[in-house]
Write a structure and sequence with these properties.
By secondary structure, the chain is mainly α. It has a domain at 1-57: Orthogonal Bundle (Multidrug-efflux Transporter Regulator, Chain: A, Domain 2), CATH 1.10.1660. It is built from six helices and two strands. It is elongated. The model has no long low-confidence stretch (mean pLDDT 90). Residues 1-70 form the HTH merR-type domain. InterPro entries: DNA-bd_dom_put_sf, MerR-type_HTH_dom, MerR_fam. Keywords: Coiled coil, DNA-binding, Repressor, Transcription, Transcription regulation. It comes from Paenibacillus ottowii.
């Protein structure tokens, strides 16, 4: 069992952020020791790390809440639950990820243009400085 401080160290989230995620329903409230101190399992830490990856993808907290509404579906399926039980949830996840994939592809194109422009400028500036040295 881990305290909120230990979870914070392992995930990089502040205790405030972890409590906020609990408050808005992105995370379920953990069990408490003596009714006060939050205690987390390894499974909950893995779940938080999954949330962090979804956030890095650019999903909003609302989308993450929707995405994770049924918990870790893959774990449940691996433990023997029927895939058919999660078909609606899987379709929602596909829809959310496809939307973000389109956005990421657009950002990639923008970045490739910016990289190309930066490389052109570097080449130009290097040429100019070489010309200056020769003169």
């Amino acid at each position: 069992m881990l305290t909120i401080s230990q979870v914070s160290e392992r995930t990089g989230l502040t205790p405030y952020t972890i409590r906020y995620y609990e408050k808005i329903g992105v995370l379920q409230e953990p069990n408490r020791r003596n009714g006060r101190t939050r205690i987390y399992t390894e499974s909950e830490v893995s779940y938080i790390q999954c949330l962090i990856r979804l956030k890095k993808l650019g999903l909003s907290l609302e989308e993450i809440t929707e995405f994770t509404r049924d918990g870790c579906v893959l774990d449940k399926i691996q433990k023997g639950e029927e895939v058919a039980n999660f078909t609606p949830a899987l379709h929602i996840r596909i829809e959310i990820l496809e939307k973000h994939l389109v956005e990421l592809e657009s950002k990639r194109q923008e970045l490739e243009c910016m990289i190309s422009l930066a490389n052109e400028k570097i080449a130009l500036y290097q040429k100019l400085t070489k010309d200056d040295i020769v003169m």
